[in-house]
Amino acid sequence: MGSKKKEIALQVNISTQELWEEMLSSKGLTVVDVYQGWCGPCKPVVSLFQKMRMEVGLDLLHFALAEADYLDVLEKYRGKCEPTFLFYAGGELVAVVRGANVPQLQSTIRDQLAAAASALSPGPERKAIRDEALAEEGECFSRVKDDGEDEDVGEFRTSEQVSSGKTCTLAIIKPDAVMHGNSEEIVMKIQETGFDILTNEERTMTEAEMRLFYQHRAGEEAFEQLIHHMCSGPSHLLILTRTEGAEDVVTAWRSIMGPCDPDVARREQPDSLRAQYGTVMPFNAVHGSQDAAAARRELLLLFPSFKFSEEETGAAPGKSPKQILAS
Questions:
Q1: In terms of pTM, does the model score above 0.85?
Q2: Within 13 A of 110's CA, how many CA atoms are on the CB side?
Q3: CA distance readout (Å), 15 to 58, 70, 71, 93, 95
Q4: What is the CATH number of domain 2-134?
Q5: Residue 235, phi then psi, degrees to nearest 5
Q6: Phi-psi region for residue 245, left (φ > 0), alpha (ψ -120 to 50) or beta?
Q7: How many CB atoms lie within 10 A of CB 43?
Q8: Which whole number is the average pLDDT over 130-143?
Q9: Rounded distance, CA 122 to CA 295, Å?
Q10: What percent of the chain has a predicted confidence (pLDDT) above 90?
Q11: 3-state secondary structure the chain
Q12: pLDDT tops 60 at residue 209
């Protein structure tokens, strides 16, 4: 019960315009986690916030949660696929960080805290910024034309070119790793190895979802055990992109995971996630898409609110995601 009170005190929930105005008048620096209702707040950064508050105290550093759909001032952030952190000081927007990039968040908090402390002393006024990403209306991703210009298409691009040429794949932190309290550590290691996390959603899978998800394995002896395990508790569903390296994101993620069997992983790839966090099959901690086609299929099933083009899904007009997946 004590930990719950601590978490509530750590991040104030801004749900009205009045609370937003109150936040703007706060002394020091306020970091606002802008989130979508279907995705929820960015949980992996809570431990960072706790650590930073312990380091600097409660007077100059504040954290808040704000659901974009509830506040008109955040209207342009609605429908975005990645967590966004807005930094306010003196009632003005002074920095923006996109994605659950813990090192970047930590660095930005330190820099902006120093600037906020300086602003309290006599001297030049602090310079406000505008979020350049909101200069033009658009969706989360944009298709890159051959001439290098961006074309807004309002589509979620999976395992194809998105935004600045990035590709996407699905990662799942399975119920066994979540149950053992390893999810935050796994998320940190994912980021440390050069991935960006566009979405991190905690969800308990349904049996219907998992039977469709693993339909290609329906004839295997351990199929029912696998379905039961995947529905036994919450998982973390992540959409990954890769910021560096020549390796495509699907291949890179599978390499970080290691061999499917944790025992084999410990022998052949002891630094892999499955070697470190898996126990015995099917409790191997993490899932990754087999290839680009599987990534499209799995993301379509688990994130149906995203918009796919007919070209990507190979669907006839009017077909639902489940009809596509079952065909």
A1: no
A2: 9
A3: 22, 6, 7, 19, 22
A4: 3.40.30.10
A5: -115, 165
A6: left
A7: 17
A8: 44
A9: 55
A10: 15
A11: CHHHHHHHHHEEEECCHHHHHHHHCCCCEEEEEEECCCCCCCHHHHHHHHHHHHHHCCCCEEEEEEEHHHCHHHHHHCCCCCCEEEEEECCEEEEEEECCCHHHHHHHHHHHHHHHHHHCCCCCCCCCCCCHHHCCCCCCCEEECCCCCEEECCCCCCCCCECCCECEEEEEECHHHHHCCCHHHHHHHHHHCCEEEEEEEEECCCHHHHHHHCHHHCCCCCHHHHHHHHCCCCEEEEEEEECCCCCCHHHHHHHHHCCCCHHHHHHHCCCCHHHHHCCCCCCCCEEECCCHHHHHHHHHHHCCCCCCCHHHHCCCCCCCHHHHHHC
A12: yes
Q: Scan for tokens 């890179």, then name that residue.
A: 252
List the structure tokens of 187: 């998320």
User: 6: alpha, beta or left, given left = phi > 0 and alpha = psi -120 to 50?
Assistant: alpha
Cis peptide before 122 (omega within 30 of 0): no
What does the alpha-carbon distance between residue 5 and residue 1 come to, in Å, rounded to a whole number?
Answer: 7
Domain-wise residue ranges, the chain: 2-134, 142-326
Which listed residue (62, 229, 236, 287) is catalytic? 287
Cα–Cα distance list, 251 to 5, 14, 208, 265 (Å)? 42, 40, 28, 16
Token pair recorded at residue 151: 């074309």
Residue 1 is encoded by which pair of tokens? Answer: 């019960």
One fold for both 2-134 and 142-326? no
Q: Which of 39, 83, 85, 47 is nearest to 64 (CA)?
A: 85
Q: Is 287 part of the annotated catalytic residue set? A: yes
225: tokens are 């055990």
Q: How far is CA 263 from CA 129, 172, 175, 277, 281, in A?
A: 52, 20, 19, 11, 9
Rounded to 10 deg, the angle between the 46-56 and 102-119 helix axes is: 30
**142-326: CATH class:** alpha beta
Predicted confidence (pLDDT) per residue in 263-320, tens digit: 999 999 999 999 999 988 889 999 999 988 888 888 888 877 654 434 333 443 444 4
